[in-house]
TrEMBL record:
Organism in which the protein naturally occurs: Tetracentron sinense (Spur-leaf)
Cited InterPro entries: Cupin_1 (IPR006045), Germin (IPR001929), Germin_Mn-BS (IPR019780), RmlC-like_jellyroll (IPR014710), RmlC_Cupin_sf (IPR011051)
Protein name: Cupin type-1 domain-containing protein
GO cellular component terms, semicolon-separated: apoplast
Mitochondrion is among the record's keywords: no
């Protein structure tokens, strides 16, 4: 079991040279947000400039001062209070709650729904959302952009997963007479929310009645009525759904597109070309709810293997509608003392929520520091593993543990360190490995002879 840890400090040069499709790259391991510039260390790129400027509205804390708590949040096992007009409550875990999410392009929410509770129509201007139902039954939907404005809906049960593409207006409605709960990941550290009714009829100052009357093709009396209803924060949302789609997805990307796969060798002759990520796009008119849907995430993976853990992935291979949307998720099961061994995701930051059990987790910063940052997580705790860094989770309890984690890529990739180094086909030569690990050939041969679980 010891070998994976041995390797942790060596392969960090693998990490994080890929560009994001959404939030900016930190250009370093991470960039814990601080509000006071006196506590910043300058990125090399920033220090060469005479003026400070914000990355995404935040300064970066000196990485040497970062602690596990900068990547940590607790209490996501606690339900939000749904005693309000819409009967739902969103508990956010983004860069405001976890400063270490700064520049990492991902966050999450817990949403509670009373019986017949509604998360009213809204958009996230900066994020795709991938939602897992933990309890209850939800009727969910989103509306495509102009000119089609097609409503795509689905009834979701426990363990079902659904995707709401970036910028599109969407909602969830609890059709059952019991409470419902979901965890959803969003492909931005700060996805933003535009609740349609509030933004349109509740803005301060208000949008002029002339504009609204024209936009909604109703008379001014109708607009005043809508504003009145919206001040009571009810109902009006559905009416607005088909109209405000022009709000959607107009953000520019500041960086090159991500390859969405390990590499993308350039060629000149299109006859030999593959599409980015090897995927064609389906005609949008033919898309159905099932293109954004996966079921069965309530079912535990089989942990009867050497490491005692099992990762159930829900990415573009399972949900083709995730293509190009920059987010995915996994369920991870851990037997007592099970380990998700040291690995990296070359294309994604991971944000993990513990549903059951107690996990000892950690990640290692890149050269030259290679600092190990660890934390013990309990039910409801949330932890972030920055993009490309080697990390692990270990179930230190004598009961099973379960986690759900969002990843900031449709296809995050996994490099299990032990497998990649000692289990590659063909093998990396002994000369290379003995030198790299400063051990003799017998040790390398022993390690190469092991069967490595492909988790
Ligand atoms: C959501 O729940 C929290 C915690 O119970 C509560 O403080 C907050 O007011 C609730 N928000 C709404 C909109 O009801
Ligand atoms: C939930 O909110 C309602 C209305 O604000 C309040 O009366 C009630 O005590 C709250 N419940 C809990 C458990 O905090
Ligand atoms: C994970 O669990 C699934 C479903 O039980 C099983 O088919 C698969 O072989 C397991 N993977 C590993 C690595 O044990
Ligand atoms: C889990 O995997 C082990 C080993 O492959 C197998 O013996 C066992 O029947 C599996 N358990 C379930 C519940 O499928």
């Amino acid at each position: 079991m010891g070998a994976p840890f041995l390797i942790v400090t060596i392969f960090l040069t693998l990490a994080s040279s890929l560009a994001f499709a959404s939030d900016p790259s930190p250009l370093q391991d991470f960039c814990v947000a601080v509000n006071d510039p006196k506590r910043t260390c300058s990125l090399s790129i920033l220090s060469s400039l005479h003026n400070f400027f914000f990355v995404n509205g935040k300064f970066c804390q000196d990485p040497k001062l970062a602690t596990a708590d900068d990547f940590f949040f607790k209490g996501l096992n606690i339900a939000g209070n749904t005693s309000n007009k819409v009967g739902s409550n969103v508990t956010q875990v983004n860069v405001a709650q976890i400063a270490g999410l700064n520049t990492l392009g991902i966050s999450l929410v817990r949403i509670d729904y009373a019986p017949y509770g509604l998360n009213p129509p809204h958009t996230h201007p900066r994020a795709t959302e991938i939602l897992t139902v933990l309890e209850g039954t939800l009727y969910v939907g989103f509306v495509t952009s102009n000119p089609d404005n097609r409503l795509i809906t689905k009834v979701l049960n426990k363990g079902d997963v659904f995707v709401f593409p970036i910028g599109l207006i969407h909602f969830q409605f609890n059709t059952g007479d019991t409470n419902a709960v979901v965890i959803a990941s969003l492909s931005s550290q700060n996805p933003g929310v535009i609740t349609i009714a509030n933004a349109v009829f509740g803005s301060k100052p208000p949008i002029s009645n002339d504009v609204l009357a024209k936009a909604f093709q109703v008379d001014k009396k109708g607009v005043i009525e809508l504003e009145r209803i919206s001040k009571k924060k009810m109902g009006a949302q559905f009416l607005v759904v088909t109209v405000f789609l022009a709000l959607a997805s107009s953000l520019a990307f500041a960086s090159d597109p991500s390859p969405l796969q390990d590499f993308c060798v350039a060629i000149d002759d299109p006859k030999d070309a593959l599409f980015v990520n090897g995927k064609f796009c389906k005609n949008p008119k033919l898309a159905t709810a099932d293109d954004f849907f996966f079921k069965g995430l309530n079912v535990a993976g089989n942990t009867s293997n050497k490491v005692g853990s099992n990762v159930t992935a829900v990415n573009v291979a399972q949900i083709p509608g995730l293509n190009t949307l920059g987010v995915s998720l996994v369920r991870i099961d851990y037997a007592p003392y099970g380990l998700n061994p040291p690995h990296t995701h070359p294309r994604a930051t991971e944000i993990l929520t513990v549903l059951e059990g107690t996990l000892y987790v950690g990640f290692v910063t890149s050269n030259p520091e290679n600092r190990l940052i660890t934390k013990v997580l309990n039910k409801g705790d949330v932890f972030v593993f920055p993009i490309g860094l080697i990390h692990f989770q270990f179930n230190k309890g004598h009961t099973n543990a379960v986690a759900i984690a969002g990843l900031s890529s449709q296809n995050p990739g996994v490099i299990t360190i032990a497998n990649a180094v000692f289990g590659s086909k063909p093998s990396i030569s002994d000369d290379v490995l003995t030198k790299a690990f400063q051990v003799d050939k017998n040790v390398i041969d022993y390690l190469q002879a092991q069967f490595w679980v492909n988790n």
